Give the backbone structure.
Amino acid sequence: MNEAHGPLRDVKVVACSTAQAGTVPYTLMADLGAEVIKIEVPEVGDNSRGSTVLPGLPSTYFETNNRGVKSLTVNLKTAEGREILRKLVARADIFGQNFRPGAAEKNGFGYEDLRQVNPKLVYMSVSGYGPKGRRWVASPKPIRHRVTR
């Protein structure tokens, strides 16, 4: 196994993220030497694992967006899975997630919950539609911009 190098070589990250906005930041951290552990759902893992254009070969999309990241399958819907996550977070510097708005808090791994496990934890949250979700962002009225010359 290669020894970590780079400015983040002593940083440990736990990520519960999918999709490009939720994976690329952790890939970049891994590129800079961080140890990144990505939590994936049992049996299927990250949905992008199946996004291949080359039959029989791994998904280049997944491989590119998860480069240098270790994957661990954990069922966060079980008490045992949530306890595994808490143990990982206790030793981490950074936790990141891109669950639907409110899902982390509902399941016991929102910022306030994990701060009790690790008071020094940096908590990252990414949402494609903001913290209130898509319904809040979508507007029934068209947006019009005035063009001036």
Residues 98 and 126 are 5 Å apart (CA to CA). The chain has a mean pLDDT of 87. The helical segments are 19-31, 60-65, 79-90, 103-106, 111-117, 134-137. The beta strands are 12-16, 35-40, 70-73, 94-97, 122-125.
